[in-house]
Design brief:
four-stranded parallel beta sheet; globular; alpha/beta; 690 residues; Arc Repressor Mutant, subunit A; single chain; 11% strand
Length: 690
């Protein structure tokens, strides 16, 4: 095998691209005839390892199912059969030194690379010079060997630069790890990043996508070996949500812990990459959210557990469904899912019976693993609901500094009504008195602790929530219920809740931008740590429907006119473009009246890219109900046009609207309202009752 053939194997192993011969020839800068010969050599290797051959179909190179496993087979070889050039050898030695836990002897390097000790000594000057270019220093100790000193981020940057030069065979050998034993695969990382591209509608260029995958692979491997970025000069970051969401799923599926400095560095790194305009997903975000509400309602009724009022559950599940449906299928390690299924068999069965709501929309059957992970979200919601009543006394223990502690603390506050009595280092847990705390929640395993403890990720995944819930169950069974906490604390969102109503009522057109600015100042004043969705304030329903955005007894001859009149105010005030209205009508003609979210109540909307400029709603009550589409059995009296600017900002208003519409008295009272102001006050009344 030569370097080009190994590079071709790496390119073909990509989960997100199929090559043809001409593309490989262009990238490798050789003729198509040469590529065909290389493919013949690769097929010989595949046959030797009893793996199916590469075949050409419609001009594309089709891989056998087990093709990617050849990377593991290749990495079992040594550098006796693959002769490194001097630049490759220097890069390999640098990677060995950086990835080594301790000192590395010259003899060890020479033996590993199948070269003489003198050859390694002759390379040392160039190695040290290259290290200095990255602010790293090679330290030599007599009878110990060589090691590298410097900042962790510089080590990663150098590793990343060299991974771009070395082929996969060399990289796998230097890492010295059987990749089959790792808690992740390259395909898994690619899928996570690809999901979040679609989720945030920010598409990396092909080159930057590859760079991000390589960096995340390095980050995961360094974390596995105990190396983290532990300091960052930046206190706050704007527009870091995509980075947070990527790392959230990296920690969940790759089973590592990521602290705040890691998050800040990755946010900055992601921001430095090139983004292309790309293609937006064909999925309708608001429609998926409507289907999510219907799924939650159906599962709640089936299980006899009301999950309709859990906003965090709704937000998490709708986000999960959108990212799942936007990406190609991938198989996750589902060992933890099997454990959860054993305890929640009724939940998994219920979800499996109700997912036809989703399948009918996407025109395909969900895979077993996709259904399983929807079930995990439901199980986590049930655990949070069950444990929201009682405030257990909790100690948080972390090993990676105060940043990780604060990240875990914020996530615990979001999902559980815990009384956090202290944050300690892991080595201090053995001194905690069991009279002052009920449970220690740690980011790493702890020894010699007198009280119950559990290990979670700082991101607190749904699986973590379920495990915490199970632990709380065991504490409850011992009849050790803590005292309820009636503490009232001042929070940024609490302050915003109190001032946003005034802003939306007095200056609705300017309120969203003002709230963002106020929120940033408040977060700075309260010195709040970085947390999920920290840059997004979701207005309530009454914020988006003040009396100025409600019209009563509007005359319309059909549903098309009802949609146009419900959107007229938003068009006049610059919330939407004219094409947005046409697209709403096209949606109904294509998909039917799915936007009827309650009997007699329609929520027309379209995708952001069809002319939605600002977040807004406008509600009209028709003088005479009209039928939508072919649904003559369900005439519509209320039409509320929604202009959504992303997948998240409108979520709370939408969530509250659906819950209010479940109360039959609401529409009865709304029907009797004699003025727009009276209707707006009614919405406020019912929303506060939630």
């Amino acid at each position: 095998m030569n370097k080009r053939q190994l590079d071709i194997i790496e390119k073909l192993s990509s989960a997100y691209r199929k090559f043809n011969i001409s593309e490989l020839a262009d990238e490798c800068k050789v003729s198509e005839r040469t590529i065909r010969k290389d493919l013949d050599k690769i097929n010989e290797l595949l046959e030797e390892n009893k793996i199916g051959r590469l075949v050409l179909k419609s001009g594309k190179i089709i891989k056998p199912n087990e093709f990617n496993s050849i990377l593991n087979r290749i990495s079992k070889d040594d550098f006796y059969s693959y002769k490194l050039s001097k630049p490759e050898r220097i890069d390999v030695i640098i990677q060995m030194l950086i990835n080594s836990v301790g000192y590395v002897t010259l003899a060890c390097i020479a033996d590993y690379l199948c070269v003489s000790r003198v050859t390694v000594i002759n390379d040392l000057d160039e190695i040290k010079e290259k290290m200095l270019e990255w602010d790293l220093q090679v330290i030599s100790r007599h009878n110990k060997g060589l090691r590298v000193e410097g900042k962790e981020e510089k080590k990663r940057e150098l590793l990343l630069a060299m991974q771009s030069n070395l082929n996969v065979f060399v990289v796998n050998n230097v890492i010295q790890t059987d990749t089959r034993s790792l808690p992740y695969t390259k395909g898994m990382i690619e899928k996570i990043v690809n999901e979040q591209e679609h989720m945030h509608r920010s598409f990396l260029s092909d080159e930057s996508f590859g760079v991000i995958i390589k960096y995340l692979s390095i980050m995961i491997m360094r974390n596995i070996h105990g190396y983290s970025i532990n300091d960052s000069p930046e206190k706050n970051l704007e527009n870091s949500q995509m980075a947070q969401d990527i790392l959230k799923y990296i920690t969940q599926y790759c089973r590592i812990n990521v602290n705040v400095p890691e998050l800040i560095y990755f946010s900055r790194f992601l921001k430095s990459q090139k983004f292309s305009k790309g293609q937006s997903t064909n999925l309708d975000t608001v429609k998926i959210q409507i289907l999510t509400r219907q799924l939650i309602d159906a599962v709640s009724e089936d299980l006899g557990v009301n999950l309709n009022t859990d906003y965090d559950f709704f937000e998490n599940l709708s986000n999960h469904l959108e990212s799942t449906l936007a990406a190609e299928e991938v198989v996750y390690d589902n060992q933890i899912v099997d454990e959860i299924r054993n305890k929640y068999k009724d939940v998994f069965e219920s979800v499996n019976n109700k997912v036809t709501l989703i399948e009918n929309y996407i025109n395909r059957k969900l895979t077993d693993i996709e259904v399983d992970y929807i079930s995990v979200h439901v199980c986590a919601a049930i655990e949070r609901r069950k444990n929201n009543e009682v405030s257990f006394r909790i100690v948080v223990a972390c090993h990676a500094g105060i940043g990780t502690s604060k990240l875990l603390l914020e996530n615990l506050k979001e999902y559980f009504n815990f009384l956090i009595i202290d944050i300690v280092s892991v080595h201090d847990t053995k001194y905690i008195d069991d009279n002052i705390a009920d449970l220690v929640i740690s980011t790493v395993p702890i020894d010699e602790c007198k009280i119950d403890n559990i290990v979670v990720s700082p991101m607190l995944t749904d699986e973590d929530c379920i495990r915490v819930g199970n632990k709380i169950d065991s504490l409850r069974k011992r009849n050790n219920l803590p005292i309820r906490s009636d503490e009232n604390t001042v929070t940024v969102n609490g302050v915003l809740e109190n001032i946003s109503s005034v802003l939306y009522e007095e200056i609705p057109d300017y309120a969203p931008d003002l709230i963002v600015k106020i929120q940033k100042n408040l977060r700075s004043y309260f010195k709040e740590s970085l947390q999920e969705n920290s840059d997004i304030f979701s207005p309530e329903l009454h914020h988006l429907l003040p009396y100025t955005h409600i019209e009563l007894d509007v005359e319309c001859k059909d549903w098309q006119e009802a949609i146009r009149k419900s959107a007229a105010l938003l068009l006049e005030k610059g919330y939407i473009e004219p094409r947005y209205i046409d697209e709403m009508i096209n949606n109904i003609e294509e998909f039917g009246p799915y936007m009827i979210i309650s009997k007699g109540f329609a929520l027309p909307h379209s995708k952001v890219e069809f002319g939605s400029l600002k977040l807004g709603m406008n509600l009209i009550r028709l003088k005479e109900p009209v039928c939508f589409g072919n649904d003559t059995a369900n005439p519509v009296e209320y039409v509320c046009c929604l202009s959504a600017v992303d997948g998240k900002t409108h979520l709370r208003a939408f969530f509250n609207l659906v819950n209010i519409l479940k109360k039959t008295s609401f529409k009865e009272e709304l029907h009797k309202c004699s003025s727009s102001r009276e209707a707006a006050e009614l919405i406020v009344k019912y929303e506060y009752q939630l």
